[in-house]
Structure formats: C-alpha cells, structure tokens
Design brief:
The protein has 215 residues and is an alpha+beta fold. It folds into 2 domains: 26 residues, no CATH class; 165 residues, Alpha-Beta Plaits, CATH 3.30.70. The protein contains 8 helices and 7 strands. Helix 4 packs antiparallel against helix 5 and helix 5 packs across helix 6.
Amino acid sequence: MGRPFPYPRLTDPAELAKLGEWSEELYRDFDAVREGNLSEAELHAKYKARAAILCLDMTGFTETAIQFGEVQSLLRIHDVQTVCLPVLRSHGARLVRAFADDLTALFDDPHHAVDAALEIHRRVHAFNASDLAGAHPAETCIGIGYGEVFGIGPNLAMGDEMNRASKLGEDTARGFETLITENVYEAVVQRTDCAFRPERREELPFSFYSVTSQT
C-alpha cells in the first residue's frame, strides 16, 4: 500500500476546468472512474468518436525570428494561416484550431485529410513563389492520423492517433512532407493518385508512411 500524498491537491472540478483544457463534467467523470462509479467502457462510449486528424507545423519560425526579427516570424504564421484555412474548409474540416505555428484540423474522412494536406503544400509552394512571400518563407510539415479518439480538449481529439499525428507533423516531417499513420495508410492505400512509401525513424516506436501526389 502506498504512502499518503503529503501535499495539497486541487480537486475541485470547477476550478480545474478554468485551466481551459477539459470541461467540468469531464473532470467529474474522471473522478467517477477513479472511485469506481463509472467504468472505462462507459467513459469511452461517452466521449470517443472516429476522426482523421491533420497536424501541421511550419519550418523556419525560429530562424526567421533570429535573422529577421519577431514580427517577420509572426507574419510567416499569418501568411501560412491565410493560405491553409481556405484549403481545410474546402475539404470539409469540421474543426480547425491554431496554436503558435501549428494548425490542427479534424475530418470525418481520411481521404479528405490527405487531399487537404497535398493541396496545402501546393498552395504554400505557390505563395512562396509569389510577390507576397517574405524574405524567409515558411514550409509546411504535416502528419495525419485516423481512428477512435476522445472528443475532449481544445482540439476535440486526444488519444493515440492524435499523439502519432502530432509527432509526425511537428517533430518528424520535413518541409513540404506529409506523413501518415498505419491507420490512414490502410484507409487510403488503394488510391492511384498518390504514392506511398514506408518510413522509419529510430526514435519512433510505430510505423508510418510518406504520401506524395502523382497528379
């Protein structure tokens, strides 16, 4: 049997909800699971849903801030957002959230997420070649996951596939690269307009694929 925790804890669900991460109801449900009044299966049934998650990161943010100043780095975020949002909406994203130089979008269909990712790369390329681009234009890096996730938190998606998509988009993908999880690959592998290649990074404990347009 463990020792009692000797320090104060904040356990009021209403106060915890002020963090802005989870709702008061969810905190109460977590307490109910701990107390044995709500099963994990019941929690799954209440909050889980299927979604395709697109996680986009931008390269060059730190380098731009160092070389050209903070305002220029913020303008690169602004530029990419103005290019990406029309694409995400046109491909049916049902939620889009921004945080710093990241974008997270949820789709019902993984095909739509892949289409959006490839179109985003094309349009950011075109923007960088235009008169609107700054001295150090940003590049987009995208990871996509698909499966059952908890519809909670600011992005309404928490769980393994969200974690994988985020890891691929934010830490693994290079500029203008789209990486997809095994679940996404299995859902879209029959497409003839895309090429898929298995990838591997020693630091990642799961398999994934790169996807490129063939059109």
